[in-house]
Amino acid sequence: MDQVKQFITWIGGAVAGLSILFYAAGYLVYRAHINMLGLSGVVDYPHEQLLYEGAKFYFTVGAYLLKSFFVVGIAVLMLVILAMLLRHVGWIDRAASRATAWAKTAVMRWNERRPALLRACVLALLGVLFVLHTDRFFYPLEDLYTGIEHLLYAAPPAAQPSQCVVPGTAGRHADDMVAAVTLWLQQGETCRFQLLGEFRRLLAGYLLLLAAGYFALRHQGLRHTTVYRVGTVTLAVYGALYTLLLPVAFGVLVRSPVYPLVALKGKAGSGDDPTLYLLHRQEHALLVWNPQTRKAAWLPADRATVEIDVLGQGNLFARPKAESAP
What we know:
Layout lengths: L1 H36 L9 H40 L3 H24 L1 H32 L27 H12 L6 H26 L8 H28 L4 E9 L9 E6 L3 E6 L4 E6 L5 E10 L5 H4 L2
Antiparallel strand pairs: 1-2, 1-5, 2-3, 3-4
């Protein structure tokens, strides 16, 4: 009986912990999404929606990481099998043995004569890799939240192409990434694969960060030094910031701006009113988006005065038919 009680207590704690993680990630996802649209401070944060957004984030990230580990494991296994097969070739085996012995001897002699120089070279290499990582992954990730906002009210492209337009400099620098993602978002559902690919690229940067941190912190020559402690703290802070920005990237890149298409009938609307997007619903009010006037408005939602017909789902950045027609 005690084991059953302990198991139930453990299940309750696990559910509570997962709920906290889902809620925190969902808040960042939803907040980044509405900030990208330009609705920050206008809509509420429904608790069920936050839990759902957080669960989607963890599912997407977990599936990608699991697939990446599987692919890396298969690649390592193939390299090991190839090395074992090559060891059966006589001259390759002898050459590899001599090269390995020479490399070990050279590193040991260098470490005995100039231990500080070896540590300095390792630290310099890690510093260069850190700068390259921040420029390639962290700064573009940061600019997704600070550089992409209020897109619903921004001027749309002159024409919405049938195929996704991919800038040639997409993802190389932070400014290029902001411009490319903005263009992709404004093309509606046409560029969903490009946006998902950009998020996977940022996840690949996260994997590189984890791998580099693991091998750097386990380097025996850097242990018990001031530089080691400073590097540990720096890497921990950098990793925490990168982790917190991943849900933000998910809210901008992966969380599709698809909302219900509705037609309102009653005192608040007439049969001649255009099709609207239902952005948010409260007990006595509706927040709708008019794609023709490109304005958001609150409308009363009294059942006695307003009838809502749901026509389907649509992307907020899809151009109206009258506007997209040549």
